[in-house]
Amino acid sequence: MKKKTDPQWKDLNPFLLCTIFSHLSLQDQLSCVPFVCHSWLSALLHSLFHHPNLDLSSLQNLDDQDAQLRQRQLSRYTHLLKLAIKHCKNWVSIYLPSRNMLDFGTLMYVAEHTPSISRVVVPCDASVDVYPIFMAVMYWKNLRAFHAPFRGFQFVMQLADYCKNIVELGLHGQFSVRDVSCIIEGFPGLKLLDMEGKDMRKDYVTFKEFRLQILEKASGINSLKMFMHCMRIRIKKPCEQCALVRFEG
């Protein structure tokens, strides 16, 4: 008669494991679960990343009191993410955290291996360095929607150069007339534009006055570079090189 043995951890129902892990905090998920056995690791990867959207926003909930602990947790999360990418590259959206952003190399790795991403969302109150995101859009050429804090018209031009199919754009921050002009010229296919940031400069009246003029001029200009040259300041006379834009102050 065979001796009855207790069930092994690795023999637990995978669906049950995923359900349990999904109710744990990210700190608990990263503390010991990945190191128990292979089946627990697989269940954790499924719980964290097996979704239509790649949601990295939970990184903003990592412990802020202990810098060393936070760095260890971020390192473990990065390792798990790279494992997941080997098996799942078909995410359609990516939600980035407002803090505790992935390091530059990791974000580039994610961007390079997720060409199907069509939507990127960065919280409007994000305090992260946008430079990695600035570089990542070079890989996300199928973007249809992009929401992020506004960090200057150079970022907008980068989007316009690499992501020509954007139809939904949300930018939050302070804007100048030049910035608005760049957006209008750079994304002719826009169907939705959200520029309502809580710290938006109170010059909406000025934008309203220039709106029709900008739209009229932008509609006849094919070169964004030429248009930005003319709009570098609110000029009082036609540009000597281009003679394209004339705005009355």
From TrEMBL:
Q: Which domain of life is it from?
A: Eukaryota
Q: Known Gene3D superfamilies for this protein?
A: Ribonuclease Inhibitor (3.80.10.10)
Protein name, as recorded? F-box domain-containing protein
